[in-house]
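Supplementary Note 3. Input sequence used for the single-chain structure prediction.
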Amino acid sequence: MMSTEFVKTAVPLSDWLERISACHPENIELGLTRVREVAEKMNILPKNIPVFTVAGTNGKGSTTAFIAECLIMTGLKVGTFTSPHIIRFNERIRVNGVEVNDGDLIAAFERINENRKSTQLTYFEFCTLAALDIFSELIKKQQLDAIVLEVGLGGRLDAVNIVEPSVALVTSVGLDHTEWLGDTKEVIALEKAGISRPSKPLILCQPDIPKTADAYAEEIGAKVWRCGEHYDFEVIQNADQKQMRFSLQQSSNLLKTCSLALDNRWVPSNLAGAMVALFLAFPKVDWVSFNFSAVVKALKIPGRFQKIQAEPSVWLDVAHNVQACQALNDRLQNYPTKGQRIAVVGMLRDKRIKDCLEVMHDCVDLWYFASLSGERALSADEIFSEYKVISDGFKRKTSAACFENVAEAYKSAIESLQQEDQLIVFGSFYTVAEVLNVLNHSQRDLSES
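The predicted structure, written as discrete structure tokens, is reproduced below.
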């Protein structure tokens, strides 16, 4: 039997990532015992520093980025942990918006390995510990003022939940990862509310989050801030732009109010929830006068309704479940086309493929299905089989083609685009990552020619 311990050698980050991938037989194993034991042994759990923990079926990444950027713009030093990455592993751990370097990651992995001994850790547990280790070093040097953590999966049993949050947020609750979290929204909401703590705020960003989240919070003594009850927002469409008006209240008393300009990349309810978190965690900051609009305008988050070409237009979105696909469809309604809309789609097998295709069918004319690689990946033929089962019931007739990989599907789609067509790439973080890799290679080839 092969040992799970690593020999300490001077190795590049890519080798370390291969090693931690192979360290544990399961990609996902929920539970806090193993990762907490190692964290406590390393003494890296943050204390006496504000921590924001963000959970949710969709919207976690953008909400985390918004909170972090707002804090940075006030002059605070902020550590951020997100997942998954799209191109580089370093994207997961940032300090003041800047990716940590390979050397710091390698040093963190070495310290984790020295302390874990024979304890098997999943890939995500290694990642979480690496982030906490790096942040711990900065806290010791008084070079960090706040931490923002994105939950990987669920909440209650996710490795991130070994950290005590000052404020917890649940952005949304949908049916995803049901084999691990449960098959109803009520059960999944309970799992996500598990990031809350006694006497600390739990912000529920969407009004339709099941009341099981409130029940859990009330049972442990957390303070619930529910959208539509404790705070609210409204979106106003002006002639040239959308505006969101936000109000924070307690009982019948209006505490704060402010507004910001919106664009179609953002979910207003998540922005409103993030603003509540900022008001509560840093009450001395003048958030009423803060320029939230500048943050919304400046933040560019890869793969979140990312426009990479104007004419003909090309969009990338990591939508990979029904709720996210519906949000993508809604956004696309703001960008009608006189031509065809082509969709390049690659997905993982633990997703609700038929439901995602049905949600998107009314805005797609031509489907380019692409195979992904890995244990959880679906082949293009498998996606096509799901499509065939439901395509006869589509209100509008569409056609489809299959490709061996995302790169081939994307290149074929780009070559066929006419001036009035649109191309949308979605289905998985992996799908978007492969397209971005194609673009990076193309730009590199141009610079070298």
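The chain has a mean pLDDT of 90. The first helix runs from residue 13 to 22.
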